């Protein structure tokens, strides 16, 4: 079992930055992918990006490419989502998730609210 706890959400003005953290416990994330997702009110959950824990390769949705960066700290078993040049359209609850296959995520965090004001 993997437990995930996100932190770092908050209120920021458009153009600002936030860094979300996703701390994992229970087992090392070495065999896993960590994905980041978001869900805005009244909308479906949207894929933001992912990182392959072993090796660190990343992949991003077009909507955040060039603005968001996913990284991880192996020693802390923690993943990060650095969000720059934030827009009001980025307002959502952000979730991290872990899975052995990037098509399927078995473990989810509780979510953290990000609000971007115009």
Structure description:
The protein has no helices and eleven strands. The chain has 118 residues and is mostly beta strands. Strand 7 (68-73) and strand 8 form a beta hairpin. Strands 2, 4, 5, 6, 9, 10 and 11 form a seven-stranded mixed sheet that branches. The radius of gyration is 13 Å and the shape is globular. The model has no long low-confidence stretch (mean pLDDT 96).
Major β-sheet, in short?
A: 7 strands, mixed
Helix content: under 10%
For the terminal residues, how far apart are their CA atoms? Answer: 40 Å
Note the total helix count: 0
What value does the average pLDDT take?
96
- What's the number of extended β-strand segments? 11
What share of the residues does DSSP label as strand, in percent? Answer: over 45%
**SSE order:** EEEEEEEEEEE
User: Which structural class do the helices and strands define?
Assistant: mainly beta
Based on CA atoms alone, the radius of gyration comes out at: 13 Å
Identify low-pLDDT runs.
Answer: none
Q: Please tell me what the overall shape is.
A: globular
Summarize the structure.
With 118 residues, the chain is an all-beta fold.
Keywords for this entry:
single chain, 118 residues, mainly beta, seven-stranded mixed beta sheet, four-stranded antiparallel beta sheet, 11 strands, 53% strand
